[in-house]
Amino acid sequence: MSPEQGAETSVKLALLDELRHAGPVFMLGYCYGGSIAWASAGRLNGLSAAVCYYGGKLPTLASETPLCPTLVHLGRDDSEIPMRSTRDALEQHSAVEVLTYPAGHGFNSDRRADFDQQCSDLAFRETLRLLEKQGIQRPPARGE
User: For residue 2, which of 32, 98, 107, 138 sits 20 to 30 Å off, Cα-Cα?
Assistant: First the structure.
C-alpha cells in the first residue's frame, strides 16, 4: 500500500468511526455506486450492511468478500452490465443475498425507460428488511 492509499484508508476509517457514534452505518449504491457499496463492504470493517443495486463492476470485485450483511438487486433483463459474469462472481459469496427481478438496468429509477414500479417497490421492501434486521431504524416511507 502506498502512503497515499494508507492515508486515504485512514480517513475513511476515521469517518466511519465518527458516523458509528450516531448509530449503525450502511452503504447503498446504484450502478457504479452499487459497485462502490460492494467494495466498501469488503474493505471497511464496521459497516452494518451494504445494498448494491445492479453494480456493473461486481465481476472485477469478486475477490472482495463482504464483511457485513450484503444484499444485491439485479434486473434479469439488464443489458448494461455483464450479467453472466456478475452472477458467476456472486456465486462465490454464499452469504450474500442476491435478488433478481424481471426488469432491466435502472429498474429502480423513475427517470429511466427501464423503471418498473413493482420491482422497485419489492426491492425497496427487501432493502428495508435487511436494514431493519441489522438494527437500522426504518427511514420514513416514500412520500412521508
Answer: 32
